[in-house]
Amino acid sequence: MEITKDILDKTYLEVFRKEDFLAIDPCGIVYELMEHTDSQLDIELGALFVAMITWGNRKAIRTAARHMLQAEMGWRPGTFVMDGLFEQSYANAKNRCVYRTLNSDAFKLVCRNVREALRGHRTMEEALANLTTEECIAEICKWLAPARLGTAGKSACKRICMFLRWMVRKEAPDIGLWKGRSQSTLYAVMDVHVCRLTAPLLATRQANWKACAELTGIFRSWCPSDPLRYDVALMTMADNGAEKGAGH
C-alpha cells in the first residue's frame, strides 16, 4: 500500500484505538507505572528506561520493561536512580542480562550518567528545559551511551525520539507530561520498518538521521501542529498488517 497523507489521516482518525495500541506497545508499560506513582521524575525515568530497551519483539520488550519497573525499581524509578539503588539491581539476572545485549554493567553506567545529569534538578524536563529538541536528543544520547542507542546527527536515534514523543505529544497514545516544549518540534521515530513503509516518500534509503529528518519534514508539512500523529498512524498500519516487525 502506498503511504499518503490521506491514508495516514484516515488511519489515525478511524482505525487507531488508544486501548488497543497500549495493550501491545511498550508505552503501555509507562501507563502501568502511572497507576503506581504520580511523581514526574518517576514517570520520566520509567519512560526513558522503557524506551531504552524498545527494540525487538514487543511482547519481550514489555515483559522486560515490567520486570525492570516493578521488580527492580519497585515502581519508583526516581528513587532507584537518585538514591543509587541501581548498584544492587539485577543481582540474580542470568548472564547479567537486562534485556538482549544490554547487560547489568552497562545499565548501571547509564543510571550513573542519568543521576549525574539530574543533580540539582527536580525533573528531566527541568534539566533539559533550555535545550532545543535537537540538543535534547544529543544530550540524552550521551546519558544512554553505554546502552548504545546511536550517535546524534548520524543514527536515527529512534528510541530517544520515541521517548520525546511520549513526553511531549499531547494526544493519545502519548502522555504529554512536558508542557513547556512544543510537539511541533518532535522528530519522526525512524527505524528499518518505518523506512520500508515510507520508502516511496523518501530519497534516503537507510534508516539514519538523514531519513529521520527527511520524514520529519514531510510530517511537519502535512500537520505543522502535530507532525507525529503520522508516526502513530504508521504504527497502527503496521499492527494491521502493513509491515511486520518490531514496534515502537
Report on this model:
The protein is mainly alpha-helical and 248 residues long. Helix content is 53%, strand content 2%. The chain has helices spanning 5-15, 18-24, 27-34, 40-52, 58-72, 77-82, 104-118, 124-127, 133-143, 158-168, 192-197, 209-222, 229-239, and strands at residues 97-99, 102-103. The protein has a two-stranded antiparallel sheet with strand order 1-2. Strand 1 and strand 2 form a beta hairpin. Helix 1 (5-15) packs across helix 13, helix 2 (18-24) crosses helix 3 (27-34) and helix 4 runs antiparallel to helix 10 (158-168). The protein is globular. It starts with a helix and ends in a 9-residue tail after the last helix. The model has no long low-confidence stretch (mean pLDDT 95).
Properties at a glance:
248 residues, mainly alpha, two-stranded antiparallel sheet, 2 strands
Overall pLDDT level: 95
- Regions with little confidence, pLDDT below 50 for 5+ residues: none
Distance between the termini: 20 Å
In total, how many beta strands? 2
Categorize the overall geometry: globular
Provide the gyration radius in Å.
Answer: 17 Å
Give the biggest sheet. 2 strands, antiparallel
Indicate the proportion of strand residues: under 5%
Order of helices and strands: HHHHHHEEHHHHHHH
What structural class is derived from the secondary structure elements? mainly alpha
**Number of alpha- plus pi-helical segments:** 13
* Proportion of helical residues: 40-55%
Lateral strand order in the biggest sheet: 1-2
